[in-house]
TrEMBL record:
A cellular component annotation (GO) from this entry: chloroplast
Keywords: ATP-binding, Chlorophyll biosynthesis, Ligase, Nucleotide-binding, Photosynthesis
GO biological process: chlorophyll biosynthetic process; photosynthesis
GO molecular function: ATP binding; magnesium chelatase activity
UniProt catalytic activity: protoporphyrin IX + Mg(2+) + ATP + H2O = Mg-protoporphyrin IX + ADP + phosphate + 3 H(+)
KW Ligase (keyword) present: yes
Residue ranges annotated for the Magnesium chelatase subunit H N-terminal domain, each copy included: 81-241
Class in the EC hierarchy, top level: ligase
Family affiliation: Belongs to the Mg-chelatase subunit H family.
The name this protein goes by in its record: magnesium chelatase
Domain CobN/magnesium chelatase, first and last residues per copy: 245-1362
E.C. code: 6.6.1.1
Pathway(s) it belongs to: Porphyrin-containing compound metabolism
Length: 1382
């Protein structure tokens, strides 16, 4: 129990002199749980606690010397030296005690032992010591070595000494290390090839988790069988299995006997001595353990009987209605006596009135034990209200291979919230506290990302590790947070609906009356209305709910459709400063950034104001914004400021005054999860952790944004529930574009008559009027053209308008609980059908149709891109036939209302014997009548499954499950077209195993895009390759495409990723110049803050790749990475390796360059200021040689690297988000910045890869902006779709125009006609003006302001008359807004 006492310690060697940098909180109380600096000190002081300040720059500074035990004197006894390597430190104290006891006996031998944690072997000096220790070692022991690069280091070192050593014992680890096993005649060097059942066990890839269970069964039975076999081989195998039993037994007594057995049997000097050893003391493989119980239990009823008779419990625990929490523990911590952190959690839960059932398992599969001990076998109901795993591992498979479907099945039976808390494994407590990154990346991959795939939530660090003894100790503030939150989730299971209190939180970004209720693709107020109606029907108290969504808007923003500006919004609570300080323990920490409360944000000068409206037990509140978006000086700070007082007051109100049982954040996304603090594994002085407090957090998140959803899960402890993006439609053609299409049809039927040349000249002049002359090289009017040239001009124009027509766009906004109708799903199905899925044996529909006419679809795409008229026409026919056949199929599965009826039955009848399928019927009327029916049948079978998923609706159902304390099934986020498993929505979104990317398929796609990019740049650059490409890596894109853009960077520099036995990518190797067939292209990689948080392992991989390439002995003209690194090293006076720094992002805990905030809030003076924001916020580098240092500012290197860029590059990977839909894309665009940094002042080429369809394209940025404007902002289909959603739709239109100005500011790649046409569409048209003004006057005012700003900043040249009209309109709309107030 001693571990329950917290001991103070100092932070850094000279902490007394440093303490002024710590927050006042920490100075008073430098305890384990609260000794971090404030996150916003940068402006006034340079102090920051950072691992870089310490030692070797790695994550752990611990040394093996703390695990070295030397005998006091050998008294002439033979010496036995043991070297061990383990994943975690729980064996350290147990093994040390065993060795000290043996040495104190002074019999047989004197033992010397030294232990290494596998993570320490990254340090070169430690690795050298390890190799030296092995040179005179008798016995080597390894266990749970599952990190490939370290496994290979262990293998290489041990292999050299293996034959000389007396025994090598490796317990479950990667095959490369398992093969080192050697015990007399027993060896595993043939592992994976031998036929024996023992070896077959290691080969079974599929039943990964079962591996450990099979191993345990074998361990139990084999020694008994082998005992009676006479051969040495059998006896050696028996001793290996006994060793494993001793090791898994883990107690000092077991380990003593283990060392006696191995030393006595295999160390030559001891063979003559008969060393007696006892058999292993066997503990249960799985069972229930409680620190105060007399024994372990393998029957839950017996345990509950004991629990019921306890006399030491408080009154709360005697209450039959007390919440019951199931705990999942690792057996090794219990048997080795390293269980102080488990005891602390059990005691804390009981002190707070919760009963516990703590189960443990010895294998890596906890699914069986959870079902066995936590579910009543008679009623099939769970005994518990919530489950907390304290192992940190996935439920099935631990650090090795996982079996997520099996885990989900077990958790579904339990049907309670599932929390996975984290013990620190690879860092000591001190190292974690000092790290800005928080958790070690390998631990994030193994113990955060993998449990998320099971549906695990709330990665709270609850225990630390002592650097000296290796023992785990509880972090008390964290244990309190974990236990309180677990009980709050459990309460949701037990509370009745009519008393449950729910705080719905909406966002307002940028802060403006017209922006209340912003969320990606979501009609927020209509959705809230739909949710509340349903909850009311279900028994929740929602008294006073208005009759319509419009009524709801009016209540929250105080007047119909945002038509007044003071006092801003409806005020639900005025909080006095005294009340605020009493309810908000961290309030004083915010004063450094924001001064004394109440401040001037969300305040009336005396009180802090909480905006929103309460209906019965439901509160709808407006989350305050960051607060610094309107201040250009604050936007320049390299690190983000703390939340302001109004922000903190909002969450204090929700938790402590309104007393919410749960908070529902409504839509993608708010600011809470992006507040400063550690990236993952937060401490109690990280702001997201302080703000969310103890409230269970449910969060509706767009299904196509798994990366930011993952940040919300990890940093605001959210149960993220996915919602659908609006159904996509083809952009279609309008106005002049439609006319062009008709002219081209005429040309095709009349081109061989005398009218051909005349029609072509009409096509050319109409194309000019439509501004297509920027995209297509048009001849001068009146120029004589040959028939072939005419065909080519028409083909190119045709190809361009086909591209516009078939572009997918989400129309309107989604409403929660309203799935798309079947016909709305057609465009999505057409796009799903356009992709080959070789792993499922499914061919693409365009591919099948092209084959019918003897063509390869890739060739048709290429020909169409070149403007070959026959290919453009064939592609149009293929596209039309795809849409037609899929519509015919969908038509047969729907009823008269357009709803999908039982798809399964309809499909069975369609695919039934003697039936002609609807798609075959349709194709029989086209030139594709001979299409392969077998391939079509397989494809349509798959499309039938997809259709069922698209129209399924579980968004409301899952929300209700979460609010009732049930388990919400996990599912991947991403693009439903690439990965239909994203559907149906209403799942707890997860990302992917970060170590699984890039996949082989992603690498293939990446090569195609890189080759096209370099080809395009050569054409635009006089036949020369670009020397450097500056590009962006996004979190969501890499999840959706399984690492395509990551693979693009690797392919540019010419390295390939190498996967280990488990398919995890932790290594790269260079590709030869011969194979590459071109020079290695240098890169400057700007990783988004979200990518940095999710894929720090991949940043490590990239940095390693770049440095590896810079150090290759190759000619500079073939290796631009080396060329530039040598130049920069000479200029900066550093090594080539340091100069080859190319992987950048924000400082830890900060996100975005703030250029988007400045543009959205018009808070910038000139482009130079935007460029300074970008440089100050994005110049933090990652260094693979010092990964523990996190992100370090290296602005000079960043500027030098950018100054060599010949091209900038971004990826678009899904049809829902394009360049002007969100501000992130221009926020990360360095095109104008590069021009200002280049010595020759030349503007780099700017490219965008578009992989949203099967026909991947590389376009210039200007082409992409034009395509975007034509298909969205200027397209009646799109803007009318938005207008139909009312208030929110006007905001969406305004947002597209603001983002277009953003592109003018960062790249200068927006044509004048885009603004001119937008002005014609939205301002010249009187009826349109009136509709915008009436629907959302605040957003209309911003729209008018944006036009004036575009002109004022020189991005739009227009007539004085237009400007005058806009000025007049601006004052009219101002008067109207203010007039309504009066």
């Amino acid at each position: 129990m001693s571990s329950l006492v917290t001991t103070p310690f100092s932070i850094l060697p000279n902490s007394a002199t440093r303490s002024e940098g710590l927050s006042s909180l920490s100075q008073k109380n430098i305890f384990l749980h609260s000794c971090l600096p404030r996150k916003h000190l940068d402006r006034s002081r340079s102090f920051r606690v950072n691992c870089a300040a310490v030692g070797n720059g790695l994550f752990t500074q611990t040394k093996p010397e703390v695990r070295r035990i030397l005998p006091e004197s050998n008294q002439g006894l033979p010496r036995v030296k043991v070297v061990y390597v383990v994943l975690e430190a729980q064996y350290q104290s147990s093994l040390s005690e065993a060795v000290r006891t043996l040495n104190s006996l002074r019999k047989y031998a004197s033992f010397e032992v030294v232990g290494y944690l596998v993570e320490e072997l990254r340090d070169e000096e430690t690795y050298r010591t390890f190799c030296q220790d092995l040179e005179d070692a008798n016995i080597f022991i390894g266990s749970l070595i599952f990190v490939e690069e370290l496994a290979l280091k262990v293998r290489d070192a041990v292999e050299k000494q293996r034959d000389r050593m007396d025994a090598v014992l490796v317990f479950p680890s990667m095959p490369e290390v398992m093969r080192l096993n050697k015990l007399g005649t027993f060896s595993m060097s043939q592992l994976g090839q031998s036929k024996s059942p023992f070896f077959q066990l290691f080969k079974r890839k599929k039943q990964s988790a079962g591996f450990a269970d099979s191993m345990l069964k074998l361990v139990r039975t084999l020694p008994k069988v082998l005992k009676y076999l006479p051969s040495d081989k059998a006896q050696d195998a028996r001793l290996y299995i006994l060793s494993l039993q001793f090791w898994l037994g883990g107690s000092p007594e077991n380990l003593q006997n283990f060392l006696k057995m191995i030393a006595g049997s295999y160390v030559p000097a001891l063979k003559a001595t008969k060393i007696e050893y006892a058999d292993p003391v066997l503990f249960l493989d799985s069972g229930i353990w409680h620190p105060l119980a007399p024994r372990m239990y393998d029957d839950v009823k017996e345990y509950l009987n004991w629990y019921g008779t306890r006399r030491d419990v408080n009154e709360k625990l005697k209450d039959p209605n007390a919440p019951i929490i199931g705990l999942v523990l690792q057996r090794s911590h219990i048997v080795t006596g390293d269980d102080g952190h488990y005891v602390a959690v059990i005691m804390e839960l009981e002190a707070r009135g919760a009963k516990v059932i703590p189960l443990f398992a010895g294998g890596l599969d906890f699914s069986g034990p959870t079902e066995r001990y936590l579910v009543d076998s008679i009623t099939n109901k769970p005994f518990v209200n919530a489950v907390v795993s304290l192992t940190g591992f996935a439920l099935v498979g631990g650090p090795a291979r996982q079996d997520h479907p099996r885990a989900i099945e077990a958790l579904r039976k339990l049907d309670v919230p599932y929390i996975v808390a984290l013990p620190l494994v690879f860092q000591t407590t001190e190292e974690w506290l000092n790290s800005t990154l928080g958790l070690h990346p390998i631990q994030v991959a193994l113990q955060v990302a993998l449990p998320e795939l099971d549906g695990g939530m709330e990665p709270i660090v609850f225990s630390g590790r002592d650097a000296r003894t290796g023992k785990s100790h509880a972090l008390h503030k964290r244990v309190e947070q974990l236990c309180t939150r677990a009980i709050r989730w459990a309460e949701l299971k037990r509370k009745s609906k009519e008393v449950k209190r729910l705080a719905i939180t909406v966002f307002s970004f940028p802060p403006d009356k017209g922006n209340v209720g912003t969320a990606a693709y979501l009609n927020v107020f209509a959705s809230i209305f739909s949710v509340l109606k349903d909850l009311k029907k279900d028994g929740y108290n929602v008294n006073g709910l208005p009759e319509t969504p419009e009524g709801l808007i009016e209540d929250v923003i105080h007047d119909k459709e945002a038509k007044f500006s003071s006092p801003n919004l409806n005020i639900v609570h005025k909080m006095t400063v005294r009340e605020y300080q009493a309810l908000t323990p961290y309030a004083s920490l915010l004063e450094e950034s924001w001064g004394k409360p109440p401040g001037n944000l969300n305040s009336d000068g005396e009180h802090l104001l909480v905006y929103g409206k309460q209906y019965g037990n439901v509160f709808i509140g407006v989350q305050p914004t960051f607060g610094y978006e309107g201040d250009p000086m604050r936007l320049l700070f390299s690190k983000s400021a703390s939340p302001h007082h109004g922000f903190a007051a909002y969450y204090s109100f929700v938790e402590k005054i309104f007393k919410a049982d749960a908070v529902l954040h409504f839509g993608t996304h708010g600011s809470l999860e992006f507040m400063p603090g550690k990236q993952v594994g937060m401490s109690d002085v990280c702001y997201p952790d302080s703000l969310i407090g103890n409230i269970p957090n449910v969060y509706y998140y767009a299904a196509n944004n798994p990366s930011e959803a993952t940040i919300a899960k990890r940093r605001s402890y959210a149960n993220t529930i996915s919602y659908l993006t609006p159904p996509a439609e083809n952009a279609g053609l309008y106005k002049g574009l439609k006319q062009l299409s008709e002219l081209i049809s005429s040309y095709q039927s009349l081109k061989d008559t005398g009218r051909g040349p005349q029609i072509v000249s009409s096509i050319i002049s109409t194309a000019r009027q439509c501004n297509l002359d920027k995209d297509v090289d048009l001849p001068e009017e009146g120029e004589e053209l040959l028939p072939k040239e005419r065909d080519l001009v028409v083909g190119k124009v045709y190809s361009k308008i086909m591209e516009i027509e078939s572009r997918l766009l989400p129309c309107g906004l989604h409403v929660i609980g309203e799935p798309p109708s079947a016909m709305e799903a057609v465009a999505t199905l057409v796009n799903i059908a356009a992709l080959d899925r070789p792993e499922d044996g499914i061919y693409s529909l365009p591919g099948i149709l092209a084959e019918t006419v003897g063509r390869n679809i890739e060739d048709v795409y290429r020909g169409s891109d070149k403007g070959i008229l026959a290919d453009v026409e064939l592609l149009r026919q293929i596209t039309e036939a795809s849409r037609g056949s899929i519509s015919a199929f969908v038509d047969r599965t729907t009823n008269k209302k357009g709803q999908v009826v039982d798809v399964a039955d309809k499909l069975t009848s369609m695919l039934g014997f003697g039936q002609v399928e609807p798609w075959v019927q349709y194709l029989s009327k086209t030139k594709f009548i001979r299409a392969d029916r077998e391939k079509l049948r397989t494809l349509f079978d798959f499309l039938g499954d997809c259709l069922k998923l698209i129209v399924a609706d579980n968004e409301l159902g899952s929300l209700k499950q979460a609010l009732e304390g049930s388990y919400v099934e996990p599912g991947p986020g991403g693009d439903p077209i690439r990965n239909p498993k994203v559907l149906p929505t209403g799942k707890n979104i997860h990302a992917l195993d970060p170590q699984s990317i890039p996949t082989a398929a992603a690498l293939q796609s990446a090569k195609v895009v890189v080759d096209r990019l370099l080809e395009r740049q050569k054409i635009d650059n006089g036949g020369k390759y670009p020397e450097t490409v500056a590009l962006v890596l996004w979190g969501t894109d890499n999840i959706k495409t399984y690492g395509e853009s990551l693979a693009q960077v690797l392919w540019m520099i010419g390295v390939r990723p190498i996967a280990d036995t488990f398919g995890r990518v932790n290594r790269v190797e260079p590709v030869t110049l011969e194979e590459l067939g071109r020079p290695r292209v240098d890169v400057v990689v700007n990783c988004s803050g979200v990518f940095r948080d999710l894929f720090i392992n991949q940043m490590n991989l990239l940095d390693r790749g770049v440095k590896m390439v810079a150090e290759l002995d190759e000619p500079e003209e073939q290796n631009y990475v080396r060329k530039h690194a040598l130049q920069q090293a000479a200029e900066l006076g550093v090594s080539v390796r340091d100069a080859a720094t190319r992987v950048f992002s924000n400082a830890s805990g900060s996100y975005s360059s703030n250029v988007n905030l400045a543009v959205e809030n018009s808070s910038w003076n000139d482009e130079k200021q935007l460029q300074d924001m970008y440089l100050s916020r994005k110049s933090f580098a990652f260094d693979c040689d010092a990964p523990g240092a996190g992100m370090t500012e290296k602005r000079k290197v960043f500027e030098m690297a950018l100054s060599t860029a010949d091209a900038t590059f971004q990826n678009l990977d899904s049809s829902e988000i394009s360049l002007t839909d969100v501000s992130h894309y221009f926020d990360s665009d360095p095109t104008n910045l590069v021009q200002s940094l280049r010595r020759d002042g030349k503007k780099p080429s700017a490219y965008v890869a578009d992989t949203t369809t099967a026909n991947a394209q590389v376009r210039t940025l200007a082409e992409t902006v034009r395509l975007d404007a034509r298909t969205k902002l200027l397209n009646p289909k799109w803007y009318e779709g938005m207008m139909s959603t009312g208030y929110e739709g006007v905001r969406e239109i305004e947002k597209r125009l603001t983002n277009t100005v953003g592109w003018s500011a960062t790249s200068g790649q927006v044509d004048n006609w885009v603004y001119e046409e937008a002005n014609t569409t939205f301002i010249d048209d009187e009826e349109m003006r009136r509709r915008l003004m009436e629907t959302n006057p605040n957003s209309f005012r911003k729209l008018v302001q944006t036009f004036l700003e575009a002109s004022g900043r020189g991005y739009w040249e227009t007539s004085e008359e237009n400007i005058e009209r806009l000025r007049q309109l601006y004052s009219e709309v101002e008067d109207k807004i203010e007039g309504i107030e009066r």
